Amino acid sequence: MPNVNWPEAIKPLLKKYKNEKHPLDYKTNYQLIVMVILSAQDSDKHINKIAPTLFEAYPDMTALSKATLKDLQHFITGVRNSEKKGQWLLQIADTIKADKNIPYNLDELTALPGIGRKSANVILRESGHPAEGIIVDLHTVRVAPRLGIATGADPKKIEKQIMDALPKSEWDAGMAMSFLGREICRPTPKCEVCLMRPVCQYYNEVIKQAG
């Protein structure tokens, strides 16, 4: 594959998934934060299922700050690493106290327990704040090297490579790749219907050659 002009090549993907809401079914930014933390190493579908009863009991950060771990566990049992995540959520609620105090920048978000760069980037995107990084989830980790915009399997290194390849105005590409990975660029990819075929390294160097 010749060198790809990624700022140009990524535009169709960004256009396709522009304004696409994250699969977590949150209603407020408070719910978003809680669900992002709970969904780590778990599935969005599972978290969406347990969320209504959880948020009925704890409708905002203030209510959550008054919860005990034992009470909270009742609503999140079955979530992977539920005890640790419950501790993180209570620490966050105790720190923030109220929804109006939720921070919206990468440094302050990642300073909170249970929130890494990926989670912080998701929170910034979904709450409508400017991107400070690129969302690299398990789907992006699969898709980015296939496309050829990044190499390796380390999310932080992949994020850095994509940030270097694209202007800040196109940093939503990470979430766009995630959507592509969920729908088309699956572990067994549906290359025949993928709009990124013209520039995709995997398609041009592996699939076409094999065909």
TrEMBL record:
Signal peptide: none
Organism expressing this protein natively: Parafilimonas terrae
HhH-GPD domain segment(s): 38-183
GO molecular function, one term: metal ion binding
Family annotation (Pfam families): HHH, HhH-GPD
Coiled-coil regions, chain positions: none
Family to which the UniProt record says this protein belongs: Belongs to the Nth/MutY family.
Gene3D superfamilies attached to this UniProt entry: Helix-hairpin-Helix base-excision DNA repair enzymes (C-terminal) (1.10.1670.10), Hypothetical protein, domain 2 (1.10.340.30)
InterPro entries: DNA_glycosylase, Endonuclease3_FeS-loop_motif, HhH-GPD_domain, HhH_base_excis_C, HhH_motif
Entry's Gene Ontology BP terms: base-excision repair, AP site formation
UniProt keywords, alphabetically: 4Fe-4S, DNA damage, DNA repair, Endonuclease, Glycosidase, Hydrolase, Iron, Iron-sulfur, Metal-binding, Nuclease
Cofactor: [4Fe-4S] cluster
The name this protein goes by in its record: Endonuclease-3
Entry superkingdom: Bacteria
